[in-house]
Amino acid sequence: MTLFERNKSVKVSQADNSLLEVVAHLKDRFHEIRTVIIFDSNTKTIVKAGADMITVPFDLCHEVCDKMQGLEGLQLTKGVNKWVKEIVGNSRGCTHLVDLVMESFKAVFQVTGFCLLPAEMPFEEKLQKIQAMNAGICHTYSNLNRNPKYIGNRNI
Q1: 145: which residues sit within 8 A by CB, 6+ positions away?
Q2: Model confidence band, residue 154 (pLDDT cutoffs 50, 70, 90)
Q3: Separation CA 30–CA 89 (nearest Å)
Q4: d(C-alpha 74, C-alpha 87), whole Å
């Protein structure tokens, strides 16, 4: 018998030349929460941020949505996790907002490091760029000297 299940999703769309719209969604038995972040991929900066508390256990939960605006101007750099917790988390925020914002950042990292590479760039060159971004944070990319066989989508 399943007692609890939580589903999260993140969708990144190109809103403009350098602007990305990141929509993150969390749904479980008690919550349905959506965040929308507009992110400038050139400056790695949040341009606009908002949240919708669609289903929540308490009316007070709605009060934290406005805190998302405090993320505007924040750059995706080392230490950003601490700032996100300060701005939308802790005792005056919501742990689920922190979670969705961090999931959004992970998605942006993937999109800017993989999906936005020029289509005409040779696969081997793309792989080198991806390796440089992921060395030290990924087992495989930190061990490419062992010549792993690439089994993924060559259309990155």
Answers
A1: none
A2: low
A3: 18
A4: 10
Per the structure block, which two tokens stand in for 9?
């999703």
DSSP the chain: ------EEEEEEEE-SSSEEEEEEEEE-SS-EEEEEEEEETTTTEEEEEEEEEEE-SSGGGGGGGGGGGGGTT-B--TTHHHHHHHHH-GGGS-HHHHHHHHHHHHHHHHIIIIITS-TTS-HHHHHHHHHHHHTTT-TTGGGGGG-PPP-S-S--
List pLDDT tens digits, range 73-106: 999 888 899 999 999 999 999 999 999 999 999 9
Greatest C-alpha distance within the chain: 55
pLDDT at residue number 29: 95
Task: Supply 98's token pair.
Answer: 């922190």
pLDDT for 23: 98
CB 24 within 8 A of CB 14: no
- Exposure string of 130-156, with b = 16+ CB inside 10 Å and e = fewer, is beebbeeeeeebeeeeeeeeeeeeeeb
